[in-house]
Amino acid sequence: MSTYREIHGKAIKSLSTDPSDANVAGQVWYNTASNTFKSVVQSAAWVSSSNLGTARYGTGIGQSQTAAALVGIQRASPITRIGTTEEYNGSGWSTGGTLGTARYRVAGAGTQTAGMGAGGYIPGSGLQSSVEEYDGSSWTGGGAMPSGVQFQSGSGPQTAAYYMSGNYPGGDTGVTLRYDGSSWSTGPSLNTGRRQSAAIGGAAAQTAALVAGGYNPPGSPGDATLVEQYDGSSWTATSVLPLGVHAAGSSGISTNALVFGGSAPSYVKTMAWDGTSWSESANQASNIRRVHNGGGGTDAALGMGGSPGGATTEEFSKSTNVITAAAWASGGALNTARLLYGGAGNKTEGLVAGGYSAPPGGTAQNLTEEYNGSSWTAQNTLGTARYENWLVGSQTAGLFFGGSEPSLSAKTEEYNGSTWAEQDDLNTARKTLAGGGTQTAGLAFGGAAPSVTGATEEYDGSSWSNNPNSMSTARRYLQGFGIQTAAVACGGGYPSAVTTTEEYDGSSWTSGGAMLVAKQRGGAGGIITDGIAFGGGASPPSAHALVEGYDGTSWSTRPSTATSLFNVGGGSNTTSTAAFMAGGRNGSYVTSTEEFSGETTAVNVKTLTQS
Fold first, then answer.
1. CATH (domain of 374)
2. Is 486 in contact with 502 (CB distance < 8 Å)?
3. 389 and 315 share a domain?
4. How many structural domains comprise the chain?
5. Distance from first CA to last CA of the chain, Å, rounded?
6. How many Å apart are CA 460 and CA 441, to the nearest integer?
7. 249 and 398, same structural domain?
8. Looking at the structure, do residues 382 and 260 belong to the same domain, yes or no?
9. How many CB atoms lie within 10 A of CB 610?
10. If you average pLDDT over each of 9-13, 231-235, 248-252, which comes out highest?
């Protein structure tokens, strides 16, 4: 029998702590603290990611877990054709170009920056033959298909795509079509006609493809298990899936693939192909995916959307790391329910001050509370009770300014972790403003004074000075985050909510990427290249749970909050992965707190046991 040293070329080490390097996969060591043998092992799992901006099911394009797109096509309750495209960047979804013709059951192929959608169905017009090509921002017409078709499956790049099976005027068929970037030609037919099959092939789809499952034509209805493989000249039935399925997601190449989700009774299943046989892998968490598409490879796949009305996104990974998805979690309750207060700090060192208390007897508040990551504690009160104010800085160095007393206020107060001290006033008294920065380098912008304004003021630790460069869009109830020389103003409204984003460089304002949805009365945190906006809505009492992240250029979705709230606050210059949302209103005034944690990874260390 071979020894461990003979196999691995090294002896088993004795370590007091486990290694944190995933490159030690397969190696064994003895942990002297726990008196156990351990190793790093590889595992497969689906992890939740940010929701789509619009719940839908449709067709995916892009064979990458960090650069995919979802085109249209349909959502339930009521059934609606959706022409907008959403793009995924590995963290969240943002809005892309709009199809020239919104349609159901279109088939996609290509990548996020060179994709395509072909065929489909429009009620009253029937099966479609039109083709549109995507360049990462807009859709333009491509070469039309030979015939109208729906429920096809596509794979391959935009200039060498392969489309298989589908529903034609004569029924479900095994027709295959090749696209060269401008025109179509007919390829060898599948042995068994079907629709809504999983098409796999990637860049080599026209010479090496795989078709798995699908829905059998009339006469033999049901979810198919049949798998056919293409070698560049003909299709051959090679194997069967462990589970019959149609309308599934897929990823990989013809010799190494995944098929997941779909419309079988157990459509959370993932089936893996190694070129010879199929095996079951990790299950998806969501069971709403009757129709959806995937992207990526066998070690990094992506599933998105679903029916009915699915907005969920999940990432499949096969690695030596355990991935914990980004998420919001419930935290400790505020001692006093309130809204329109100031929030600063982060989820383990939070600070809220001021606000407006719940009716009956609602009034401006001077209350201060500190958060330690689990509970809120009342602290010394503000010098002047106010609401509709803004707060920046940290739990031990806060800067509170503006608001309503209920008359407009220009007062500024500094917090040292224990008490508040009044400082020089803002030059312009205002309410419903926003800001950024620190206690010694603060920033105030926007609000109502009493007319809506875009005016900007800077604080140097002792006094405020006016900047002659105002925001291009005057607004109130906006969100802000960042530092004095690199800040973001987003959302807000006058008279209605806007999606406008502006960036401040310490001197002037320039336009940034538009938010996904118009919102006001929300909270925000982070820095200019990694910000987060949460809560709020188009107008009270409307609110939503959608959370958006900003990367310095554009906004994309992040995991949603558990509760839809408006008139909330949070840390305006915290990191985006340590934000909190406390208080606010969702019909009634609340004391709840939600904490945000970014995605984390850790080496998958397992204790070895004898069985």
1. 2.120.10.80
2. no
3. no
4. 3
5. 19
6. 5
7. no
8. no
9. 4
10. 231-235
Tokens (6 digits) for 135: 């360049």
Q: What is the pLDDT of residues 78-100, one digit of tens each?
A: 678 888 899 999 999 999 999 99
Domain identity same for 295 and 373 = no
For residue 72, the enclosing domain spans 52-319
Q: For 188-213, what is each residue's pLDDT tens digit? A: 999 999 999 999 998 899 999 999 99
**Spatial strand order in the sheet of 398-401:** 390-393, 398-401, 412-415, 420-423
The dihedrals phi and psi of 511, each to the nearest 5 degrees, come to -70, 140
Strands (DSSP E) along 404-522, which ranges?
Answer: 412-415, 420-423, 434-437, 442-445, 456-459, 464-467, 479-483, 486-490, 501-504, 509-511
Q: What is the pLDDT of residues 403-448, one digit of tens each?
A: 999 999 999 999 999 999 999 999 999 999 999 999 999 999 999 9
611 falls within a domain: no
Give ∠ CA 555-559-560 in degrees, rounded to 5.
100
Contacting residues for 234 by C-beta, under 8 A, at least 6 apart: 188
Distance, CA of 412 to CA of 414 (rounded, Å): 7
Cα 7 from Cα 501, distance rounded (Å): 59
Q: Is 332 in the same domain as 315?
A: no
Give 475-513 pLDDT, tens digit per residue. 999 999 999 999 999 999 978 899 999 999 999 999 999
Considering 266, 296, 319, which residue would you say is the last residue of a domain? 319
Distance in angstroms (rounded) separating the CA atoms of residues 372 and 579: 13
Q: Are residue 14 and residue 36 in the same domain, yes or no?
A: yes
Question: Which amino acid, one-letter code, is at 339?
Answer: L
